[in-house]
Write a structure and sequence with these properties.
Helix content is about 55%, strand content about 15%. By secondary structure, it is α/β, with parallel strands linked by helices. It has a single domain (about 25-245), classed as P-loop containing nucleotide triphosphate hydrolases (Rossmann fold, 3-Layer(aba) Sandwich). Bound molecules: thymidine-5'-diphosphate.
C-alpha cells in the first residue's frame, strides 16, 4: 500500500496553513496493547511534517511528579492499592499534567497528543474496578472543570489479543507485567465495554477505529478524520490521486 500523506490543497504553501492549524487537544484511548502509542507517533510525525508544533505526552505520567505517581500505580508491588486510591492518583497525575504541560502547550498554539486521558479513568476505574462513571466524571468536573479533548481516537481491539500483546511487551521491556496487566479477562471486558459506552454517549468527540487492521490503514483513517475536522484546507495525497484518475 502507498503511504498516505497529508498535503496542502489548492496552492496552499506547505508548512503551517494559517488559522486552520489552531491548537488542538487530541487523546488516544483503548486497551493495553491496542496500538495507541504507534498511532500517536505516526500522527505526530505527519503533523510535524506540516510545520505544526506538537507536544506528545502520556498518562499516567508526562511530568516529573506524574512519572513518580505512574511508578506507584503500575508497580506490581502496589497490589494492595484500593480502587479509590488508584482513581485519586490517576487524577493527581492528570491535574499536574494539565497545569504543567497541556494548558501551556495549547496556549502557545501547539497541538497536544496525549496517550490516555479521563476516558481511561472512566473505563478502568469506573468500569473495570466498578467505581462507576459518576464518581469519575464528578472528580473530572471538580478538579479540571470538565476539560475535554477536541478529539479522542479510540482504538478498538479484541480483549484477549490486545492484552496478551501488552503483557509480552511489558515482559520484554520491564521484565514483568504491570499491575493492570495482571488483571483477568473479565476486568478487561468491562474496560472495553466502558470505552464503547463513552463513544456512544459522545460520538462527536470520540472517533472509534478498528485497531485489528494493519498499522498503515489505521493511520490513514486517523489522518482523514483529523483532516476532515481540523485541517479542511489539507487533503490526503490519496484523495488527490483519486480525483485525478
Ligand atoms: P501503560 O504501560 O502506559 O499502558 P498503555 O501503553 O496500554 O497505555 O500503563 C498505563 C496503565 O494505566 C494501563 O493499564 C491503563 C491504566 N490507566 C488507568 O487504569 N486509568 C487511567 O486513568 C489511566 C490514564 C491509565
Amino acid at each position: 500500500m502507498t503511504e498516505p500523506r497529508i498535503m496542502p490543497a489548492h496552492g496552499l504553501k506547505s508548512g503551517v496553513a494559517g488559522s486552520n492549524t489552531a491548537a488542538r487537544f487530541v487523546t488516544f484511548e483503548g486497551m493495553d496493547g491496542s496500538g495507541k502509542s504507534t498511532q500517536l507517533s505516526l500522527l505526530a510525525a505527519t503533523l510535524k511534517g506540516l510545520g505544526i508544533g506538537v507536544v506528545l505526552t502520556r498518562e499516567p505520567g508526562g511530568t516529573p511528579l506524574g512519572e513518580t505517581i505512574r511508578g506507584l500505580l503500575l508497580d506490581a508491588n502496589s497490589r494492595g492499592m484500593h480502587a479509590t486510591t488508584e482513581l485519586a492518583l490517576m487524577f493527581a497525575s492528570r491535574a499536574q499534567l494539565v497545569a504543567e504541560v497541556i494548558e501551556p502547550a495549547l496556549m502557545r498554539g501547539d497541538w497536544v497528543l496525549c496517550d490516555r486521558f479521563v476516558d481511561s479513568s472512566e473505563a478502568y476505574q469506573g468500569g473495570g474496578r466498578g467505581l462507576g462513571s459518576d464518581a469519575v466524571l464528578a472528580i473530572h468536573r471538580a478538579l479540571l472543570g470538565g476539560r475535554a479533548p477536541d478529539l479522542t481516537i479510540l482504538l478498538d481491539h479484541d480483549v484477549a489479543e490486545s492484552v496478551s500483546r501488552a503483557r509480552v511487551r511489558s515482559i520484554a521491556i520491564e521484565g514483568k507485567e504491570s499491575r493492570f496487566e495482571e488483571e483477568g479477562q473479565y476486568f478487561f471486558e468491562r474496560v472495553k465495554k466502558a470505552f464503547l459506552l463513552i463513544a456512544s454517549r459522545e460520538p462527536e468527540r470520540v472517533f472509534v477505529t478498528d485497531a485489528k487492521r494493519p498499522v498503515q490503514v489505521i493511520h490513514e483513517e486517523i489522518l482523514r478524520e483529523i483532516s476532515r475536522r481540523f485541517l479542511p484546507d489539507l487533503v490526503l495525497r490519496h484523495d488527490l490521486e483519486e480525483v485525478n484518475q
